[in-house]
Amino acid sequence: MKNEGIEGTERFLSPDKGRGLRAVRHFAVGELVFACPAFSYVLTVNERAAHCDHCFARKEGLSKCGKCKQAFYCDVDCQKGDWPMHKLECSAMCAYGENWCPSETVRLVARILMKQRATTERTPSERLLLLTEFESHLDKLDSEKEEMNQSDIAALHHFYSKQVIDLPDNQALIELFGQVNCNGFTIEDEELSHLGSAVFPDVALMNHSCSPNVIVTYKGTLAEVRAVQDINPGDEVFNSYIDLLYPTEDRRERLIDSYFFNCQCDECMSKSKDKAKMELRKKKTSPPEPEEIRAMVHYAKGVIEEFRRAKHYKNILSTTPTSSAFLDSPVPPSELLEMCELSQEKMGSIFADTNVYMLHMMYQAMGVCLYMQDWDGAMSYGEKIVQPYSVHYPAFSLNVASMYLKLGRLYLGLERKTQGVRALKKAQGIMEVAHGKDHHYVAEVKREIAEQM
After folding, report:
1. β-strand 238-239 against 207-208: which pairing, if any?
2. At 279, which helix (H) or strand (E)?
3. Contact by Cβ (8 Å): 351, 280
4. In the chain, what are the domains?
5. CA 430 to CA 423: how far, in whole Å?
6. For the chain, N or C: smaller number of CB within 10 Å?
7. CB 31 within 8 A of CB 38
8. What is the pTM of this model?
9. What does the alpha-carbon distance between residue 211 and residue 453 come to, in Å, rounded to a whole number?
10. Rounded mean pLDDT of 285-305?
11. Burial environment of residue 424 by CB neighbours within 10 A (0 to 12, 13 to 18, 19 or more)
């Protein structure tokens, strides 16, 4: 395939950032900047039977693979379309049975290797950046990340050596896993539930900003990049690599840990939102000392990490949680909820309810309530979260849209029609910019609203 580039943009050398993407024409808010098919992708295990393994469509009555009975498809066309990749796993699934358990990253890397062997020309997902050009940052990995890479390589050999003959040598695999870990994407649905993992080379070309001018959403396995600010000719196109809820110091720590750079974007330099994000509880007595605040932030980060390790599941914040969501959790949901409530009580002695660390634990508590089908509890947390989210996140944030969506569906389920429609309309307004007015997620929300009229 000829390198045709992406109309309206160009690859360039960004000062202090390396290669990047910039606009050569104006893009208005909500306009599609470009779309990029996945170079390779894999559906997460927890969404099997709910989504098609090939196109990621969400529907009932999917047909399962007759051999392994673990992959599900819309129809024969989707099954045939996925076979070049699924055949990699199908026989292994049959051979290993319940012991077949490679990580999502290992599954993705195996598919990338197969795709690279079958493809000799530049693919439609590499119009500006080849996958082989990805940075791996191997020289910056700590011992823990190096051990994880070696563990993934061992799993690749264990589960795929019979399907992928002549695997690359160890150093080449270390490089590839490093590239995928630094440049991979998580495909999510409209409520930000995890659907799968993928690599989109042209999307990976964009540099990071904590005040991005584009947002990436997904239409099946197609990534779509839309403007969330006006972009003028000559402007660099910036995506966000991380959750933007947190204050500057926290964001920078996350970016250094995962992507190995110190962010110097306008938001990080101005810290304009940090005061609101770190709002303290108003007291009649003297305010807390800086040391007390630092100690509480340290506690909050520790609790967040402890909670992450304790739950070991995904999709907790879906309003239609499945029984598989907690299968791997060593901690009962009631104990997780208690952990959330105790941490909020302790942090609440210093932090206001709008403080982002309080909001984080409220969000986790909401997820546990949803799983336990405590709809009133989930709704109560959502009502506390949604307004501060609207302040802390940038305009047209998917996090804000998904919270309005969850709340709207909760309200309707609890027969609070007026509030439900109002929340769904708020979600729709954001989604029409972020996803585009013709996206099937937007159509679903419109249908839900219309059914209440």
Report:
1. parallel
2. none
3. yes
4. 271-450 (1.25.40.10)
5. 11
6. C
7. no
8. 0.91
9. 37
10. 89
11. buried
